[in-house]
Amino acid sequence: MSKPGSSQIEKPIVVYGGTFDPIHKAHLLNLEKAFRLLEPQQIRLVPCYQPVHKTHSKVASEHRLAMMRIALESASKPIRKIACIDNREIAAQEPIYTLDTLINIRQELGSKQPLVWLMGGDSLANLDSWKHWQQLTDLCHFLVLSRPGFKSPDVSSELGTWVNNRTTQYASDLKKTVSGLIYIYQSEEMDAASSDIRSNPLNYSNLLPPGVQNYIRENRLYINAK
User: Fold this and answer.
1) Is 212 part of any domain?
2) What is the bridge-based pairing of β-strands 141-146 and 13-18?
3) How many helices (H) and strands (E) does the chain have?
4) Which of 2, 131, 133, 182 could join 178 via S-S bond, C-beta 3.0 to 4.6 A?
5) Residue 56's domain is classified under what CATH number?
6) Per-residue confidence at 191, pLDDT binned at 50, 70, 90?
7) Any domain includes 207
8) Domain tally, the chain
């Protein structure tokens, strides 16, 4: 865990990885939460080429990227100002592990920039299935935005002990050090899953930014997703 460096510590960079298949309003809300909690210098959305731990997307990468650009156009002004799409994993044209992405970003940022990986509670609960998961917080902090009903991993497990030893009660701590901490934010706001939207985009259209709705309809995406 990195030690505070007073004035040498810069504003954090937040990285939000995922399939974004499709991006939806809950994703945008997560960006807003990260902004309110951390006041980051930048938020990078990093869509994966194909997920390592999930069923591969049936929608081409260029469609997912296009929907992400459209969605960000509908975000609030503060988010539009600092959010960008980092397509390094898609450009690689092969599945990339989170560890490798974080190593690359850390090399680019140097050792004095707080780096925060934004994730959902479901990802934290399954973190021990990730490649070299115990090394991840050597490179970054975790900001965990949990859905209603989320419970932190049981402390009797290896993962639970690891999470408990790194968890802080204050989001502001993630701005004071460059890596090593976990902050879990429990929210009662929108609960949405991309898998539900893929199953029936018409039934879940209220969860999509209008521009993304139109793009899905015009390009006839997710028609055979069931």
Assistant:
1) no
2) unpaired
3) 9, 6
4) 2
5) 3.40.50.620
6) low
7) no
8) 1
Domain housing 160: 6-188
- What confidence score (pLDDT) does residue 1 get? 47
Cα separation, 83 vs 72, in Å, equals 8
Beta strand pairing call for 115-120 and 141-146: parallel
C-alpha 47/C-alpha 77 separation (Å) is 22
- 99 in any annotated domain: yes
Token code pair at residue 44: 């990078």
Phi-psi region of 87 (alpha: psi -120 to 50; beta: other; left: phi over 0): alpha
- pTM of the full structure: 0.92
* Residue 86 pLDDT class (50, 70, 90 cuts): very high
pLDDT tens readout for residues 16-48: 999 999 999 999 999 999 999 999 999 999 999
Q: Measuring CA to CA, how many Å separate 92 from each of 17, 49, 84?
A: 15, 8, 18
Q: 98 lies in a domain?
A: yes
Give tens-digit pLDDT for 143-185: 999 877 788 899 999 999 999 999 999 999 999 999 999 999 9
